[in-house]
Automatic annotation (TrEMBL):
It comes from the Bacteria. CDD domains: PBP2_Lpqw (cd08501). It comes from Actinospica acidiphila. This is ABC transporter family substrate-binding protein. One of its GO terms (molecular function) is peptide transmembrane transporter activity. Residues 116-285, 346-451 form the Solute-binding protein family domain.
Amino acid sequence: MSHDGIGPRAVLRSVAFLTAGMLTVPVLAGCGSEDPAGEPLAGADAAGADRSDIADGGTLRWAVDTVPDTLNTFQADADTTTVRIAEAVLPSMYRSDARGRAVRNADYLASAEVVDTEPKQVVVYRLAQQAVWSDGREIGAADFAAQWRALSGKDTAYWTARNAGYDRIEKVERGKNDLEVKVTFGRPYADWKSLFSPLYPKEVMGTPDSFNDGARKKLKVTAGPFTVDKVDTEEDEVVLARNPRWWGDPAKLQKIVLRAVPHDKRVSALSDGTLDLAEIGPEAARRITVAALPQEGNTPLMGPEADRSAADALRSWAVANGSDEDAADEEVSARKKLRKKAEKYARQQKALGGFEVRKSLEPAYTQLALNGAEGPLSDERVRRAVARALDREDIAGAVLKPLGLPAEPVGSHLALSGQAAYADSSGALGKPDAKEARALLSDAGWVPGGPVKEEKEDTEKDEGEEAAGSEADKEGKEDTKGSGGSEDSGDGDDGTYIVGEDDGKNHGTGDGKAPHDSGTGTGQLKQGGAPAGAYAPKGTAAPARADTAPVAKDGKALVLRFVLPSGPGSKTLETVAGRIAAMLEKIGIRTDISKVDDDSYFKDHIASGDFDLALYSWPATAFPATDARPVYSKPVPAADGSLNVEQNWTRVGTDQVDQLFDQAIATLDDSERRDLIRKADSRIWAAAGSIPLYQRPQLVAARKNLANAGAFGFATPVYEDMGFLKKSAQGPEGSPASKKGGSGS
């Protein structure tokens, strides 16, 4: 959420129907009350081990989605691999701890504090004495100043994707000595800890040319436990090598190879021995879990001689019983192919026994987005009715319980459980209540029992679309199940798009395009017709039992277009969408579930506003006042008459939410700022533009003897602590003899 959003688009802004007197906002926790932030729902699972138990040397082969197009995290086409590289090779003044909160990185920063607030806010950074770049030069004020000038937004020659916070700085200068950096802000900035993380050397930030092109494929100067050895686009990998000038704890690994492997190929890569660590999906996780179980009563596969004998017998039987000889040969060939697949599967399972699944919850949540720009959902009462119809506990349980993860619905748009700003503000919307939902629909003019006009184009259903009440409902009533027998699961994640974690094709550059990830979004959205039961002949009254009868207004039934990606990894989303469709059907709302090609999911549908309902995810950050504002701010008209929505793809926003964000970002008192953020979240809930559902599962396949790596949860990885266990430190299965919370926790 920290980068800029999409460019302007001409859409109609939704009309708000709730008055201030009708808005219910829960009372926020006061002094002396229990902290509503709570604890993280799941901790890191990274096979934590002491550095003394880790062998020196070795290469970690780590699966990533892409080889990045740029190594500059501040450019529009940066992706998650760009961020991962930056974490390993560049300074960060602050990093995320196990609770998702910003903590000082002692390797670079001895201290940092606000020393003045009047007449202006002044922050003094005191750098670690040993902190030097890989060329031997000290990290200092010149690097801070160059980064500020590049990202301030004042010089348009720099092709920056974001400048939040840097645009509030008035000047950066040397302090009392070379180890001090003094930053003066022209406007108060509460999220100052988000700045200079990562910090690039002045050689990168110093000129527009070096910023725009100099750090795309190489970083000559770094300052982390690793350096960038090479970016190999032919081999689809980035090689990081141990930094000999690193002053902190020396890296245990000699190299880290970040290898681009599609999600549906990762099981094969793990079993072939070409990967040690990879994020996977639920089906792959089940395969690895089964492979690690003790095998009882195994029956060995038939050998070649037995296989030929069985094939000859089958062919003889087929011919003797009147089957065509060619058909018999085809049957035998099919059986042989099936046997080869079974043998390959068995070999993979044996190899997968050397891995384990490490699981946590990602610092990101999946939401139901409601497009408030036009159509029925432009009426806030209809959006609230949709929201009140949802059983979020049921949805979270369907996704997370089968994985053995905590299945609590997310209560905030702006933070996750354990983070400082978190509080469950869903009470501003109300609990699930079908009766209240129907009352809201009735108040908006959508009532059961009215005549529905039959329109020819609406009764012709496009091929490939599903309607609620048919297959989508059946699918939604089943928990996600794995096949267990495919070569590769192809379920790299749940198919949900995460802003800021994509394949780098685009990152909201203001050109009207939207980012997309390697698992989601082309294809034209087919305009489907009426779902089963949504239309009746003209003049036909609804049944006497109207609790779940379709609602109508002005002769039209209420049918919402539910857009989903169709590619690998979308099974979980289909399950969630099916459950949502069934819940909406109970209050008289029908849905057309439209599956679109992955590559166009965001660009052609979400970003362009061509949907009623959609599922995608947002990451949580330690700085919601800065990072969440473009996601929930009120769209504003641009000079050309179009609408600038930034990252607010639901097109729902209010002046009050914007004001609360503005106050929070300028409030230096932590407690007051948290209260403002929680108030903003309450009002976002009440507007019902997006409904948080569940925190995303994080499933990682890791070699059993790999320590301090896996499912990190909120924590920033500690790259220098990763490595392979010494023989003496391994348990009977090869994993750490005593697992701890994990590196970075």
